[in-house]
Amino acid sequence: MASPAAGRIRVTRLDEERLRDLYRFTASTLETLRPVPFGALIVDSRGGERLIRATNAVMREADPSSHAELRAVRLACKKLKSPSLAGYTLYSTCEPCPMCMANALWARLDRVVFGATIADASRHCLQIYVSAKEIAKRSDMNCKVDGPVMRELFNTLFTHPNMRKAFRSWSNRRVSTQRR
Ligand SMILES: [Zn+2]
Fold first, then answer.
1. Lowest mean pLDDT among 1-15, 39-53, 97-111, 145-159
2. How far apart are CA 160 and CA 163, in angstroms?
3. Residue 69 catalytic?
4. Is the pLDDT at 3 greater than 70, yes or no?
5. Distance between Cα 70 and ligand 1 center (Å)
6. 88 touches 75 (CB < 8 A)
């Protein structure tokens, strides 16, 4: 059954279960010293078994490329000892940025499903305004991109008081005077 909030997006009950699992996993960082609203989950597209989960670790690893989706792909490939994640699906709390979406395509992921959008995240931190669907469309790879799904729920990760406070210390925090 498709979620009413998902409109024409093909989202199954299983997708929603996985997104809720990812939401809980990511929300568990909100009570820590380094809260993050970005989390990613990779599952077997057919069987649904979880392969890996990861959160954003840019601050912890002092690495601007340590986005949740990119880390999940890295960890998954290491675990499988393969550069290919064909046969796997990536779930993300937020629409993957161009870097992460390009990496998902290079990893040959079957499908990407995301919660909040780049526009949602842009209210809190700097973003690059190219949609994940656009990146996929302009590639040779065949990766389905579905989202936003359960957008309101995923937006609560960004608006949690601890997260709002943490954003102030982020080097890429959004400043209201900045132009789009
Ligand atoms: Zn990213």
1. 1-15
2. 5
3. yes
4. no
5. 7
6. no
The reply to whether the predicted model has a pTM over 0.85 is yes
Choose, from 16, 17, 61, 69, the residue flagged as catalytic.
69
Going by C-alpha positions, the residue among 31, 39, 3 that lies closest to residue 149 is: 3
- How far is Cα 155 from Cα 147, in angstroms, rounded to an integer? 13
The count of other CB atoms within 10 Å of the CB of residue 74 is 16
Instruction: Compute, in angstroms, the gap from residue 142 CA to the centroid of ligand 1.
Output: 19
Name 112's bridge partners: 90, 145
Q: Where are the alpha helices (DSSP H) in 28-171?
A: 58-61, 68-80, 98-106, 118-121, 132-137, 151-159, 161-167
Closest by CA to 125, choosing from 161, 91, 162, 158, is 158
Q: Are 138 and 104 in contact (CB under 8 A)?
A: no
171 Cα: distance to centroid of ligand 1 (angstroms): 15
pLDDT tens per residue across span 69-98: 999 999 999 999 999 999 999 999 999 999
> What's the 96 CA to ligand 1 centre distance in angstroms?
5
